[in-house]
Amino acid sequence: HNMLYFRQESDSFLRHSGSNKKNVIFLFFDIENFKSYNETYGFHKGNELLVKTANMIVEAFQGSLVSRYSDDHFVVLTNMTDTEKIAGSLSAEIRKMEGEVKLDIKCGAYKPADGEYDPSLACDRARFACNSIKKHFDCCYRLYDHALEDKFTLKQYILNSIDDAIRNENIKVYYQPVVSTENGFIVGLEALARWHDPNYGLMPPGQFIETLEEYRQIHKLDKCIIRQVCRDYRY
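The structure assignment produced for this chain is given below.
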């Protein structure tokens, strides 16, 4: 099924969950290194891997709502209580399929609070939990918690505030000297972005550059810094 079906049927699933509603959990699955697998073995083999993975997830979560989110991503709405164990079993099965390319499947989980069952928001938070363990080869499951909630809130704030921050000149250029080891003279300057935010204070680039890159908003920061550097260079 696709996400249109998932959103339409999620309300029905929740209504029929009854007393098990407190166990409802949203899961987001991502095949690790799928792009490399596609490039190495071709799209035909990549499609076969997608079909196998989809069938494995459906079989593992029988009676649950399963859909393809996009690309090599899948979502599940279930009231099963052993989701971490099941995710571990799926990870072990996926690893058996690897050849030249290392494979794994990551799972992010989100348990909605009472009365909070927006499927789009729930999938976003499960996806955020999943992304937090990408490239962590010793971990295949992460439950969305308060620590991730803070990061998720900051990410949304950055995306919603970048335009105002540029317009209000809250993003400043800090120049770091480049020194020649041959003679000790300054031979250049590196322009570094720092965000002076009225709510979060001074934000280092590690807090906002990754988010802007992920959501393809980094060009806004690039233009902002280039404009300031050219202005400073002129004067």
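Interim note for the steering committee: Helices lie at 3-17, 34-41, 43-60, 83-96, 119-131, 146-167, 205-214, 218-234. The first helix runs from residue 3 to 17.
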